[in-house]
Amino acid sequence: MGKSIHTKEYKVFVEHLRKARLEAGLTQVEAAKKLGRPQSHISNVETGQQRVDVVELKRFAKLYGKSTNYFL
User: Fold this and answer.
1) Distance of CA 15 to the CA centre of its chain
2) 43, 55, 57, 60: least buried by Cβ within 10 Å?
3) What is the DSSP string of 15-63?
4) Interval 6-20: pLDDT, tens
5) Assessment of whether the complete model's pTM goes beyond 0.85
6) Contact 57, 68 (CB under 8 A)
7) What is the mean pLDDT of residues 7-36?
8) Are the C-beta atoms of 33 and 24 separated by less than 8 Å?
9) Beta-carbon neighbour count of residue 71 at 10 Å?
10) What residues contact residue 29 under an 8 Å CB cut-off, 6+ apart?
């Protein structure tokens, strides 16, 4: 079995993450600033190059005004 970051399910997850950011009206730069991360981190997450752990998922959900279930 391949890494979960390369699965169809993970691709759907990062698409939901990007959609939530856009629905919140935030650019990658704005989201990164609010999360205390570089813009490249947001880009890497949204393109599936970098994994998101459960703690970070909670931070994204809060920032974007979504429940964590939205992303699953």
Assistant:
1) 8
2) 55
3) HHHHHHHHHTT--HHHHHHHHTS-HHHHHHHHTTSS---HHHHHHHHHH
4) 789 999 999 999 999
5) yes
6) yes
7) 96
8) no
9) 19
10) 39
